[in-house]
Amino acid sequence: MDFEFITDVTGQPLAKCDIESEALGDWLSHDICTDKRAIESLLYMIEQLKNNQRPDVEFTGKIYHLAIADDEVELFLNNSQPHHDEFEDDYSDGPAAGCGLVEFTHLLESWRDFIN
């Protein structure tokens, strides 16, 4: 997965991911943003998952719901929140994005480093 991090004109960090994973960039930019506790919590839960100390990881944000099981990461739009028009048509019946656990962990660690 290709990604880049930038700051907007107001100084807020933005994540841009390739077209297949663009919802992950939106998730980082809006659901995670600069919440370092959420990032550390997710990384800790991922480590537990890798060590077979938990069966899966679930994280519900303002816009998206993240589900991690085995080596797969899937991101869904929350059912209880208004859908973003840019993703609604393409992803109404399935995940908005998905990737492997190794890629996702690298993305999350890179985001953490960028916002520090």
What global shape is seen?
A: globular
Which strands sit side by side, in order, in the main sheet? 3-4-5-6
Biggest beta sheet attributes: 4 strands, antiparallel
Please tally the helical runs, counting DSSP H or I stretches of 4 or more residues.
4
Structural class: alpha+beta
Number of strands: 6
Percent helix among the residues?
40-55%
% residues in beta strands? 25-35%
Compressed to H and E, one letter per element, the order equals EEHHEEEHEH
What does this structure look like?
The protein has one domain. 41% of the residues lie in helices and 27% in strands. It has helices at residues 22-32, 36-50, 85-91, 101-115; strands at 3-7, 13-17, 56-60, 64-69, 72-77, 97-100. The strands form 2 sheets. The protein has a 4-stranded antiparallel sheet with strand order 3-4-5-6.
List the defining traits of the structure above.
single chain; 116 residues; two-stranded antiparallel sheet; 27% strand
Briefly summarize what is shown.
With 116 residues, the chain is of the alpha+beta class. The protein has helices at residues 22-32, 36-50, 85-91, 101-115; strands at 3-7, 13-17, 56-60, 64-69, 72-77, 97-100.
